[in-house]
């Protein structure tokens, strides 16, 4: 009896899934929103010093197929020298498929 109940439950679940699958497929359009994260680290050596190292992190976000923005930061040190950098960037694409304009900064 227990095996029959499990099999019956499976059949009902499969039937419900097959009914909902076409409706779910209509709403499952591919997303153009995308996030990317880049992380890096490195080490250096220099004769007669303690060496150095650094790290960076960046985030790039696609709002849609035609718009993206990014933020990045980096820190480096070598002996007594230290550098810190940051950037903010973006791009937007406009126009028909055969004649597109790109604005970026």
Secondary structure: helix percent: 10-25%
Strand order of the largest sheet: 1-2-3-4-5
For the secondary structure, the number of strands is 5
Strand content: over 45%
Number of helices: 1
Biggest pleated-sheet summary: 5 strands, antiparallel
Distance between the termini: 69 Å
Shape descriptor:
elongated
- Compressed to H and E, one letter per element, the order equals HEEEEE
By helix and strand content, what is the structural category?
alpha+beta
- Taking all Cα atoms into account, the compactness measure Rg is 26 Å
Overall pLDDT confidence: 78
What are the segments in which pLDDT stays under 50 over at least 5 consecutive residues? 1-17, 23-28
Descriptors:
single chain, about 100 residues, alpha+beta, 1 helix, elongated, disordered N terminus
Describe the model.
- It is a single chain.
- The chain has 105 residues and is of the alpha+beta class.
- Helices cover 25% and strands 51% of the residues.
- The chain has a 5-stranded antiparallel sheet with strand order 1-2-3-4-5, with no helix packed on it.
- A hairpin with a 2-residue loop joins strand 2 and strand 3.
